[in-house]
Amino acid sequence: MDKKKEFNKIxxxxxxxxxxxxxxxxxxxxxxxxxxxxxxxxxxxxxxxxTEPMMQNVLEMAGKKIPKEKxxxxxxxxxxxxxxxxxxxxxxxxxxxxxxxxxxxxNALIYAKKKGxxxxxxxxxxxxxxxxxxxxxxLKRAGIKVxxxxxxxxxxxxxxxxxxxxxxxxxxxxxxxxKIGSGVISKIAKQEKIPVYIIADSWKLAKNKIPIEQRxxxxxxxxxxxxxxxxxxxxxxxxKKYISKIVSELGVMGYLEFVRKIQIN
Length: 265
Ligand code: RUB
Fold this sequence. Notes:
Blueprint: H1 3-15, H2 22-35, H3 39-48, H4 53-63, H5 68-87, E1 94-98, H6 103-114, E2 119-124, H7 131-141, E3 145-149, H8 154-159, E4 163-166, E5 170-171, E6 175-179, H9 182-192, E7 196-199, E8 235-239, E9 245-248, E10 251-253, H10 255-262
Parallel strand pairs: 1-2, 1-4, 2-3, 4-7, 7-9
Antiparallel strand pairs: 5-6, 6-8, 9-10
The structure holds ribulose-1,5-diphosphate (RUB).
């Protein structure tokens, strides 16, 4: 495939959510940028998903001539540290709840399993695009016991849950943004006294205001009758007061400590 074709294919796949999750989007955007490293391609990439700070951050670094290897290596190096950090949090025989699909979360759980931790996972299917199925399949392939619930059963699922791991798309001073549903999960968790851990690479820090992405209405109801109003917000804010700890490559920290460490404005 020539460079232009490959570049356009990556943009198309990001727009159509074939490439999904903050980390995968940032990685794919970098790959595309290095194929055609111009200001124009950077703008095209930024516009393909304007709500992804990790993509914004890595493209900014790439534009500043920070060595390609240094940026590319970060993803796996950060994941390795996250994996080690998460290990300390999981106790044997726990039920861990997760939502949507987060590479940072899934990789860390697979690592914990490899290291001999015994636990099972409850997850949600995550309508309308069902990214929860991707999570369930990947965990199952790694030999982890998974039980999937429809989204509206999350209250039931949380009744048996010991600990919640959520990914993040954006890390803000006041909290995080993650897949729609993360807000209500965190509120129930607080009420039920279930700890909520955000598992995220610190490069997801948001330097600009991040709008909540509103997605295609057809995802919710294809060919819906004209007079029915549909909303499809894809992400949701989780206030720091609901976050027990954030697990990043920098360690396991309270949210305020983390904010101070990475200096979010
Ligand atoms: C994915 C999602 C993930 C974060 C973090 O939403 O909300 O929790 O992006 O993922 P979508 P990761 O599928 O709509 O992109 O850990 O992979 O960066």
